[in-house]
Amino acid sequence: MALLSILCYPDPKLHTVAKPVAAVDARIQQLVVDMLETMYDAKGIGLAATQIDVHERLIVIDVSEERNQPLVLINPELVWSSPTTHLNEEGCLSVPGIYDGVTRFDAVHVNALDENGNNRVIEADGLLAVCVQHEMDHLLGKVFVEYLSPLKRNRIKTKMIKAQREESR
Ligand code: K1U
Ligand code: ZN
Q1: Cβ(44) to ligand 1 under 6 A?
Q2: Cα–Cα distances in angstroms (integers) from residue 2 to residues 33, 36, 38, 86, in the given order
Q3: CB proximity list for 132: less than 8 A, separation 6 or greater
Q4: CB of 62 within 8 A of CB of 45?
Q5: Nearest CA residue ID for atom 13, ligand 1
Q6: Is residue 85 within a helix (H) or strand (E), and if so which, with residue range?
């Protein structure tokens, strides 16, 4: 097992569009183990491969209270979204300390492979639906702050750059 380092906004690598996973093999299964360990260690409810500088379509999620219900989505594709949306407070492990509202579909259905290469459809609502949409955005190179106004986004960018400069001193 290994803890992986998480890219921080505004790292341009966060805007890379991920490619499909070609085969669910031992390399991908090890990556899943390491991503879950990294997500739990960082106290996140999700992590996309993009955030650890791996540009393949792979997501891990656990929204359970007990932190014992990991969900692995490989090559996820949105197959249905609800007609209704909701404004939700979001955070991001790549933008630490920043929380703001983003409008998302209330419910989504996603087709994906699991860690054994089996096809499944996930029917998500509530926090799981929000998290799935947030993580799928990462695979498209999109960070949640891009939904905010240019003024807010620029303030966040400046704050992050300053924090990273101070950290590296
Ligand atoms: O992708 C990520 O950076 C993980 C992110 C997922 C997420 C949280 C909240 C809404 C949408 C997506 C996080 O886990 S942020 C950190 C966090 O622990 C958290 C924040 C709000 C609610 C629950 C957890
Ligand atoms: Zn995020």
Answers
A1: yes
A2: 8, 10, 8, 36
A3: 46, 59, 61, 73, 76, 108, 110, 122, 124
A4: yes
A5: 44
A6: strand 85-90
DSSP 8-state secondary structure symbol assigned to residue 7: P
Contact 57, 76 (CB under 8 A): yes
**Position 144, amino acid:** F
**How far is ligand 2, taken at its centre, from the CA of residue 13, in Å?**
13
Q: pTM of the entire structure?
A: 0.97
> How far does the centroid of ligand 2 lie from the alpha carbon of residue 27, in Å?
23
Tokens of 7: 């890219």
What pLDDT does 1 receive? 78
Task: Note the pLDDT tens digit of each residue in 69-83.
Answer: 999 999 999 999 999
